[in-house]
Amino acid sequence: MPLDFRQVREDETDVYLALMHAAYAPVKALGIQFDAATADRAMALRHLQSHGVYALYVGEEMVSSVTVRYPWGPLPGPFGLPHIGWFGAHPDYPGQQFGRQVLERVERDILIGQLRAPAVSLGTATSHPWLQAMYLKRGFQPIHTCDLGKGHLTLYMKKVLDPAAHAAWQRRQTAAQRHAQ
């Protein structure tokens, strides 16, 4: 059955929340405090209204999802770049690589194809047993850690999507920092 990739609609809030709770259950069991693991319906709806949330569907069933938080939105990432948030795949489909596929589609279709983003960032718990390694394998590089008051250290990582655009972005960032001093 072919996979459908599209933005999650507000009328899918309950389905989306169920996917996030299922995907984050193992993380919650580890004692790591990610917002998606404990979100309620109101929080999930605000999340859908505030960010670009995309999902893969098998038929009508949502099987994986990833959020793009915008630099101009209510919860920007740390670098002034699009930032990956609330990412998960339904645990009922092990080995299907729906998580990898939704990340690839968001990178290709949304971050590169629509936003022309030079790079993307994400944050993960340093104490998570396998997420850092997975993101390294996907091309993300560690940048720095930060204590956000959630009971764990957050490791911020960045992936360059367009090297030339990233170099130009870095030059603008450096010039803006010099100008601000």
Strand percentage? 25-35%
Mean pLDDT reading: 91
The separation of the N and C termini measures 56 Å
Order of helices and strands: EHHHEEEHEHEEH
Widest sheet, order of strands: 1-2-3-4-5-7-6
Q: What is the overall shape?
A: globular
CATH class: Alpha Beta
Question: In percent, how helical is the residue content?
Answer: 25-40%
Low-confidence stretches: none
Task: Give the number of domains.
Answer: 1
Q: What does the radius of gyration come to?
A: 16 Å
What does this structure look like?
The protein has 181 residues and is of the alpha+beta class. The chain has a single domain (3-180), classed as Aminopeptidase, CATH 3.40.630.30. Helices cover 39% and strands 28% of the residues. The chain has 6 helices and 7 strands; from the N terminus they run E-H-H-H-E-E-E-H-E-H-E-E-H. It has helices at residues 13-29, 35-38, 41-50, 98-112, 131-137, 163-180; strands at residues 3-7, 52-58, 61-69, 83-89, 119-125, 141-147, 153-160. The protein has a 7-stranded mixed β-sheet, sandwiched between helices. Strand 4, helix 4 (98-112) and strand 5 form a beta-alpha-beta unit. Helix 1 packs across helix 3. The N and C termini lie far apart (56 Å). The relative contact order is 0.14. The mean pLDDT is 91.
